[in-house]
Amino acid sequence: MNNHENDSFGYPTGTPRAPSTPNNNTCPTTPIYPYYYATPSTPQAPTDTTSGEPDTVSSRKRKPKRTEEDKLEYMLGALNQLSWTLGDFLYMIFRVADNQGQKVTRSRRHAAMVSRFLGGTSRHTAGEILKAWLRDPCGKPNQDADEYSAMFTSTVAYYELKHARVAITAAATQLVEKELEREIRMVTRSDSGLHGSGVSPKGKPEICWNDIGPATVSNVKNIINRYQPLTWDIVNHLVTPPSRVRGGVQAVRKIRPPDLVRSLSWFHVISILTHITDIYGNYQFYQLLTHLFCSFLARGQGNLVLCMWRTASIIHVW
């Protein structure tokens, strides 16, 4: 029996307690939380009940290592206990603002995990997950669903779409559209180099003969590559015919060579896009370069005469 008084948390006060007659109605003097304050005893090795000898560490059975499927089931069970869906979990992990539009404050562990994943330093990257989502048939709507015709849409905001494949393709389309518009705004600025060096009577830049020379085509090409790289890649991809292989030998085009078709196409297409965006853009300048470039690459005197005639007609318009 303990001969010292205990405080409210079970600590001995150091004052001896006078012996008294045991009272069955009094509270026990054992501390409320004995596993917090009791002196730890020396652990004893378990005894094998069959042999009567202490068990050793080597004879203990260890739990088998969890597989990837076991870990997945454990996480799904945890979400189920919290009454969370997979969408709830992903939204809470990656959201940057709350419902009131205020910035979300993340814990240190939360921020570190998101940073590793979005930064591409984790084992599985966002690109792998997007690839899996696009291949999963669950993300594609049925033909009778409303979103079936919304693949690659640019009219409905991608974050308002429900199916994964529809939302991803719509996001790609809308992001590319926004970047193409930005490139056109950049290339039509007065300091991009596409405007003429002359000045019109109204004070607007215009083309003069000093802007045309042996390096004009290459200069314009470099400007487009610098300010419109995505536009350049898309146009080149569309106008480049796929190579054909017959009998293990790659066929070489002799009619409408790819280099000629591609060069003429990107000059013409990009000039139209630029002219539509900027009324002061050098649309006629692009057209002149197109036909000059055609005359340099065209084969046969008939094509050369046609290109020179078209060039003369454009110069006459100026």
From TrEMBL:
Segments of skewed composition (Low complexity): 18-47
Start and end residues of each stretch annotated as Disordered: 1-68
Protein's UniProt name: Uncharacterized protein
Compositional bias segments (type: Polar residues): 48-57
